[in-house]
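Hey, quick one: can you model this chain's 3D structure?
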Amino acid sequence: MKLVTIETIPGQAFQALDVVKGTVVYSKNFGRDFMAGMKTLVGGEIVGYTEMLNEARAIATKRMVEAAEALGADAVVGMRYASSSVMQGAAEVVAYGTAVKFV
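Sure thing. Here's the predicted structure for all 103 residues.
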């Protein structure tokens, strides 16, 4: 499955099928939360949160690809990520784009 953030694939004609998305709500665990609190005292990257969001993006992307495959798509164009806090200690990550079939 080809995933691109641009709206076209140079040299490739396609038909738009539908918008597809993958969503996950991911929460931090106590260990990550405690270590993040300690890190805020000295500054720098909070690696535990970076890893958490990378894992969440991977899951959301996988779910989006599965939705596109269910439509018989060859690619997803205009792919994007969005995230938001849904409650204390939990974030929603959404991967979305337009599923397309090559012609």
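One thing worth noting: The mean pLDDT is 88.
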